[in-house]
């Protein structure tokens, strides 16, 4: 068309070619066709510009969504840091609870050792004081166990709060997944727009090859190509950002999984600590029950011992040998003292000791009765001999002859039945319980005999101390 116009603008001195009406009609038809193609190309350019503007608007919305995702990730990271701090605090509290548990175990072991030593070392008169001390110690242990349970409850509440934070993080992950799906939809739309722009580019190339004179269309096409390149670069940048966000989300998921594992481990440790605290309370209650049972048994044994001593005293006072029975009080006290020492050396219980003392007392009474029977038989035999023989002038009175054998016990009577001297009886009566509390000189010998049977050792010790 430009060539045709240039030919028209040539000087008039050239002879114009002859133009027929047919040529004019063809030229007019060609001009109309070119005008229609130009209008179509301008409409396509306007449509392409509209698409570019829509792509820019979508890119702005994508950038806003990316910024929102970045803010949500920052908030989630802050929540993760807070959760990590709370987990560290829980771990520190758990370590403190472990230290307190170890301290409680050590204190309980020391208290148990002290209680056992006190029960084995002190006398029966101080049992009530030790029981009160043990009850005070048990009360303190119960208070400490209650404080441990309160701390465990606080740790469980903190763990529940951590679970709420993990639920919020899961919600944030769900929102991020939704945003990623929307971004993928936007990417698919951009790909479709790229395909449409490639089709338009092909059409524009075809139009440019058909009409090389349309410079404005070429400039618009170049601008469109440049805008499309910028849009592709921005799309690549947004894809890189999305990949970075996905990597950060994977790292955050791994951290959350690690936090979940630590939280589960901490819950398991808390449950184990609660079970250990329950076992400790059960052991404390069992120890208290045992102490109460031992106290009840000791009181019952004391009552039985008093009743037996009363019955034995009445029985001995009713018997003819009252002087011999009266001389057995310091001997019984020394036997009880020796039995207590034997119990302390051998580590026997109060009930076993009481049974052993009762057995020895029964044996001693049987020996005493046998000795008295022998004395009576000897006296009756002598009376019969004197009645059968004639009376002598220098003979002793019957009472003196009858009582003479009683002055010296026969050889068959055991040493424990022989009466103690009056001086030793007076000394024993004067010293009283103070003499019983003094440690005997034969404790080392009793310790050396620990390999023997408990009954034989205790009987040997009791008899040895009685004779001394």
From TrEMBL:
Residues 1-20, 306-336, 387-468 are annotated as: Disordered. Residues 24-158, 348-382 form a coiled coil. Keywords: Coiled coil. Residues 449-461 have a biased composition (Polar residues). This is Uncharacterized protein. It comes from [Myrmecia] bisecta. The lineage of its organism: Eukaryota, Viridiplantae, Chlorophyta, core chlorophytes, Trebouxiophyceae.
């Amino acid at each position: 068309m430009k060539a045709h116009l240039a030919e028209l603008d040539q000087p008039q001195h050239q002879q114009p070619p002859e133009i027929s009406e047919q040529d004019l009609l063809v030229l007019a038809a060609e001009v109309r066709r070119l005008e229609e193609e130009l209008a179509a190309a301008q409409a396509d350019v306007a449509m392409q510009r509209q698409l570019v503007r829509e792509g820019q608007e979508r890119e702005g919305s994508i950038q806003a969504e990316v910024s929102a995702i970045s803010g949500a990730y920052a908030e989630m990271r802050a929540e993760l840091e807070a959760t990590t701090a709370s987990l560290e605090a829980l771990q520190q509290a758990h370590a403190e609870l472990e230290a307190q548990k170890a301290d409680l175990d050590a204190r309980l072991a020391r208290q148990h050792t002290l209680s056992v030593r006190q029960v084995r070392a002190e006398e029966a008169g101080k049992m009530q004081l030790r029981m009160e001390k043990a009850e005070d110690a048990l009360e303190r242990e119960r208070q400490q166990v209650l404080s441990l349970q309160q701390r465990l409850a606080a740790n469980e509440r903190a763990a529940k709060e951590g679970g709420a934070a993990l639920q919020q993080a899961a919600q944030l992950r769900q929102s991020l997944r939704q945003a990623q799906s929307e971004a993928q939809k936007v990417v698919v739309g951009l790909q479709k727009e790229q395909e449409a722009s490639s089709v338009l580019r092909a059409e524009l190339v075809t139009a440019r090859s058909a009409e090389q004179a349309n410079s404005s269309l070429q400039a618009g096409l170049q601008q469109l190509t440049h805008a499309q390149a910028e849009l592709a670069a921005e799309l690549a940048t947004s894809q890189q950002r999305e990949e970075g966000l996905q990597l950060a989300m994977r790292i955050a998921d791994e951290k959350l999984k690690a936090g979940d594992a630590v939280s589960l481990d901490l819950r398991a440790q808390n449950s184990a600590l609660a079970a250990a605290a329950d076992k400790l309370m059960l052991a404390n209650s069992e120890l208290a029950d045992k102490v109460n049972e031992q106290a009840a048994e000791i009181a019952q044994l004391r009552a039985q011992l008093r009743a037996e001593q009363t019955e034995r005293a009445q029985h001995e006072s009713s018997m003819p040998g009252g002087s011999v029975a009266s001389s057995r009080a310091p001997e019984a006290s020394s036997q009880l003292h020796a039995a207590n020492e034997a119990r302390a050396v051998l580590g026997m219980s109060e009930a076993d000791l009481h049974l052993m003392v009762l057995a020895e007392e029964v044996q001693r009474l049987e020996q005493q009765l046998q000795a008295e029977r022998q004395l009576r038989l000897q006296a009756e035999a002598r009376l019969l001999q004197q009645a059968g023989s004639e009376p002598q002038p220098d003979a002793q009175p019957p009472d003196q002859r009858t009582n003479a054998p009683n002055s010296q016990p026969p050889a068959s009577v055991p040493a424990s039945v022989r009466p103690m001297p009056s001086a030793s009886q007076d000394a024993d009566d004067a010293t009283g319980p103070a003499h019983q509390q003094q440690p005997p000189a034969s404790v080392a010998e009793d310790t050396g005999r620990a390999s023997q049977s408990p009954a034989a050792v205790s009987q040997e010790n009791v008899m040895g101390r009685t004779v001394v």
